[in-house]
Amino acid sequence: MPKETFLKLSEEKKEKIILAAKKEFARVSLEQVSIKNIVEDAKIARGSFYQYFEDKEDLLGYILSMHFKEIREKMKENIKRANGDIFEFFISIYDLMTDNCLENKDMEFYKKIFENIRTSEDYLFSKNIIKDKPLQIKEFIEDIDISKLRIKSKQDLDIIEKVLFAVTNKAIVMRFRYESKEKAREDYLKQIELLKYGILF
């Protein structure tokens, strides 16, 4: 997270640094991101960068955490609209993420971030770039209707959450490979339907 020196900057200067960072993160993978490019674009001294952030991962974590903070409130609204249906809840996550991340001015930034997520190991979180997952069922557990789920314990619900999270996360990543937003969503909904109703007769 940013150091106190960054938080004390004017909003204009903070925005300049964030915009320069997003531009660089959108250009290459995280490993290739250049702090030199960020500071030059933001017109700050390289030494100043380290007075604001520990490293590029710290900066990325801050940017993403700001975004997830914004969508968390929307998620609270969505779970109520889903009437406790965990599948509808994850569909709303997909719609929210694709609408907010993939259809706005920061699309290239989020595209690169999602493309570089190693879904099998939850890369951004395993590397502690983001300290807490922004979307966890435990945050909304009281609003999930478990009466229609074949579960026997909290562990079962945790497994269901992990499966749905993995499928949804992968679908968001794959959205960039589709020319049609509608086709991408249709394929995602098919996956959710198979998970919901099963494969075997």
Give your account of this protein's structure.
The relative contact order is 0.11. This protein has helices spanning 4-7, 11-27, 35-42, 46-52, 56-81, 86-101, 107-115, 123-126, 154-174, 181-197. It is built from ten helices and no strands. Residues 119-126 have low confidence and may be disordered. With 201 residues, it is an all-alpha fold.
Largest sheet: none
Q: Class by helix and strand content? A: mainly alpha
Mean pLDDT: 83
Instruction: Note poorly predicted spans.
Output: 119-126
Q: Rg, please?
A: 19 Å
Number of strands: 0
Order of helices and strands: HHHHHHHHHH
Please sum up the structure shown.
With about 200 residues, this protein is an all-alpha fold. It is about 65% helix and about 0% strand.
Provide key terms for this protein.
10 helices; about 200 residues; mainly alpha
Q: Which SSEs are present, and which pair or pack?
A:
Layout (H helix, E strand, L loop, with lengths): L3 H4 L3 H17 L7 H8 L3 H7 L3 H26 L4 H16 L5 H9 L7 H4 L27 H21 L6 H17 L4
Helix pairs in contact: 2-3, 2-7, 5-6, 6-9, 6-10, 9-10
